[in-house]
Amino acid sequence: MTDSQSKPESLNPPPTAPRNLTGGGATRQMPLLPAMAIVKTPYFHVLGYSVAGEESVVQLPELNLVFDIGKCPRPVLSSDFCLLTHGHIDHSAGIVYYLSQRFFQGMAPGTVLCPAGIAEGLAGIFRAWAALEGKVPEHRLIPLNVGDEFEMRKGLVVRAFATRHSVPSVGYLILDRREKLRPDLSALNLPGHVLRDMRQRGEKITYTLDVPLAAYTGDTNMAQTLTQDGVREARVLITECTFFEPGHRRRAEAGRHLHLDDLIEALPQLRNELILITHVSRRTYLRWAAKVLAQAIPKTGNYPRVEFLMEHAQKLSVRPGKAATFTPPEPPEAIDAD
Question: Is residue 19's pLDDT more than 50?
């Protein structure tokens, strides 16, 4: 008789039960698939995934927003505001899941900003899904026309700007809106009580200063998209550039997408600190595109730094459970700008 046979049954350890990944037991780290990009800027992180025709989703976690929703990777659930540029499915497929999961996880209802031209279509999707789910997830739907603004929180404003795509579309400019003392009054160095008395008399003692933090184009095909007021000065410009082959200008125009030549045409007018290129297709190798880009940028002149978002792709891990507390980790090679 073996030792194990001679021991009382109660001393034999029971088989190990499988761990519940979302419950108790040791914490597990689960990979996020596909690999997502993380770019650190002095103002916020840019977290996202963008491949033409497959999925586009770009989150600025510190600003509590996500541009487009792609298939709704779990980290973006933490953003209260989803800014859809247009209705193509690679940019909008995850919208109902975004709203439903926020409700399921006890988060505040999501707010969806969209071009006015697709608002009714989105509302119809929500109603159709309610026929399957039993109810429409609680949400706010905010239609925007070009030039319309929406205050996400005090001092943080989103403004819709013009783009041109094959369906109704807008881009989004994120503004840090500040009230500043008028320069003439500031020069006088007046005491606080004098300024307070002037304000109480109804005098305007301040002016509004808009600092453009980020601009996101979504899909578009005109170089003028990038040179609009605010867009060209945004600290970080996130723009599509789908075509790089010299002979693909017609294809870019037909699909209403930017060609590299459009970006290079606009570049001398751009004052951005960083330009992140999105929406490159799988048929384009990033290393090759990076070489073509480097050769196309003029050798003389003070131009913005231009990089590909997906050059910064990495395998991330997040804790199982709620996504509300997700914070992008420091990337292995963080990007710091002066």
Answer: no
Calpha distance 126→139 (Å, rounded)? 10
Token pair of 125, please? 């999707």
**CB burial class (10 A; 0-12, 13-18, 19+) of residue 227?**
middle
Give, in order, the Cα–Cα distances in Å from 85 to each of 66, 69, 77, 162, 279. Answer: 11, 10, 18, 10, 13
In the block, which residue shows the tokens 């963080």? 334
For the chain, give the number of residues: 338
- How far, in Å, are 16, 17, 271 from residue 4 at the CA level? 18, 21, 76
Write out pLDDT tens, residues 119-174. 999 999 999 998 998 887 889 999 999 999 999 999 999 999 999 999 999 999 99
Nearest CA-CA partner of 179 in 158, 150, 201, 199: 199
Report domain extents, the chain.
33-318
- Residue 260 Cα to chain centre, angstroms: 22
Superfamily name and number for 33-318: Ribonuclease Z/Hydroxyacylglutathione hydrolase-like (3.60.15.10)
Residues facing residue 49 across a β-bridge? 57
